[in-house]
Amino acid sequence: MNRRLTIAFALLAAGALGALGARADVTVGVTLGATGPGASLGVHYKNAFQLMPKTLGGQPVKYIILEDGSDATNAGKNARKLISEDKVDVVMGSNGVPSSLQIAQVATETQTPFLCLTPIAVKPDQYKWTFSVPQPTELMMSAVAEHMKAHGVKTVGFIGFSDGWGDLMYTATESLAASHGYKVVTNERYARADTSVTGQVLKIIAANPDAVVVGGSGTGGALPHLALVEHGYKGQIYHNHGTVNAEFIKVGGKSVEGAIAPTGPLIVPEELPASNATRAVALDFTKRYEAAFGAGSRNAFAGYTHDAVMLLDAAIPAATKKAKPGTPEFRAALRDALENVKNVVGTHGVYNLTPANHNGLDERARVLVRVESGTWRLMK
Amino acid sequence: MNEDIFLWLIQDGVTNGAIYALLALALLLVFAVTRVIFVPQGEFITFSALSLALLEAGRTPGTLYILVIGGLAAAAMEAFVALRERAWRRLPRIAALYVLLPVAVAVLVAWAAPRKFDQWIQVLLVLAMVVPLGPILYRIAYQPLANASVLVLFIVSMAVHYVLTGLSLVFFGSEGLRSRPFWDAKFRLGVLEVSAQSICVVVASLVLILILWFLFEHSIYGKALRATAMNRVGARLVGIPTVLTGHLSFLLAALIGAVSGILIAPITTLYYDTGFLFGLKGFVGAILGGMGSYPLAALGSIAVGLLESFSSFWASAFKEVIVFTLIIPMLAWLSLRSRHVEEDEE
What we know:
The structure holds 2 protein chains of 2 kinds. Chain A is 43% helix and 18% strand. Chain A is globular. Chain A has helices spanning 2-23, 39-48, 72-84, 97-110, 137-150, 164-175, 177-180, 198-207, 222-230, 246-252, 279-293, 300-322, 328-339; strands at 26-32, 55-56, 59-67, 90-93, 114-116, 130-132, 155-161, 183-190, 211-215, 236-238, 260-263, 344-345, 350-351, 367-372, 375-378. Chain A is of the alpha/beta class. In chain A, strands 2-3-1-4-5-6 form a 6-stranded mixed β-sheet, with helices on both faces. Chain A has 13 helices and 15 strands. The longest helix of chain B has 32 residues, at 3-34. Chain B has one domain (3-337). Helices cover 73% and strands 2% of the residues of chain B.
């Protein structure tokens, strides 16, 4: 009994010390899935934290990164743990829509600001504490829709993942249809781990659309593209911003030449005109990222981590004037400050947040890229 | 839906079904001989397919670390038993099988990787790396528990599966890989354009099935496997070493997995965790075949492949649902038909 008591006291003392130690710094809690089905995104989000500054807005900052295995339940648990045990001031995460929605729920409940690294469509009046860093899917896909309109595309075949990402892409493609004068004629689904998409592709070819939109991500986008080309489909094939990485081209080889996708400017900073607002930031970040993780490793996801941290950097000075980090007052002040940051230049675009708009990106945050002789090139 | 599409779907279904058939055979073999429901069967596919893709890119696949470390762990276990039983004479054999062989393969692969040899040499290297993993896995995870119940062995299988998937993520990364096709040729068959690669898959499956049949019917090892499958205690009584049959069945399972991986690598994009789903579909095939007969399991797997390809045409969003729902009526029928036998027969 005595021994147990000693242990309990020791633990208590350690906890108190730990809490005291954390008081002075701003603590950022992160949950990501660098393993599990979303690993190909999660790894990049996570890598970027190695390049993040140790002070934000003049405050020393501590990042606590937990692994959620791309599982929504774990992501929610991690968020809760970060908030209740580590007393974080702000939560970041995660790859995947379901995980992010879980965290948003926890953030609302515990009144903690949440910088979401996945594009989720939540209303600020409902999710007061959630800020979405990436471009909204509609913003991205509208670039594709405009390109289709300019090239007289009247019918569109859709094939996407049989998960939240596929749904998001389908909804975006469908919602832009009326305003851009096309009709979506198929809604085919496949899984990343599928061996073949012959059935789905045959159905698309039977419907004979002018263009096809693929709602996959990463190398997963290559499978339908290859199958379409193999079965003699001649129309334009569009992808989405989740597909834009070097591995996609490595897997797809010659067959994916000419694939078009929207993406953030940081994929092609070298080709941006000098007048582009994000060019300098994007160029600097991709240089540092590729120095650390190898040439060609640049990707949109690491950029979201960077931009989220930049938003914090902009908001923290205003919040520290009102309260000390580690307190509920600081969290509330940070939320208010985040809601009002203006002209924060990230790798993806220029952020102007308002109470009604918790994303704050505009058309400057997207470009169209095309696969030309084995790399993604900016479309002029 | 017209005739062309129908034929295309059949071709697609048979190609996939052939791979599932191979896996179903391996699962059935392992289950019959060792009573292990071998969940990690699919991992051999992942290992061999991704290793092949990495070798083609001139990189050293991480599989060889798994091989060497696994070999050392198995050697340590064997050596411990040998020392406890004071059976010194076993030590050289242990060192040769579990240390020298994996290290030799690893050195060879590390030497060959940057040199980008012909594809068939790379295939042999991959086989040399992946096939020994079978017996090593058996030695480490299953042999100490060889007499445990089916349920315990199943739980061990799940654990092994998670460990291997984790290692696979570490060594191969999270993005998918694809290897070059063996032959680029295509043949016209009426409206169909059949790729040489998919013919390869079907032919290789048939050949493997024939070899397995021959092995089981005509070789002394095959007969030992069959005897163990029928009655472990009886087999032991007539002098068949059940440890040996365990090793043998895992060796064959690894071989089948590795070959399937090499066959499928040029057809589809494989990820570090893709193998599991393959294994699962092979399992569905084996269950459709009644979990007892090799030809029926092969037929069941072809049926799974066909069902998959047709459901992906008609209702792609529900494809997996349709495939996996299939086992419920089958399981119900199997359990109604069979007498209940206590599984711990010893």
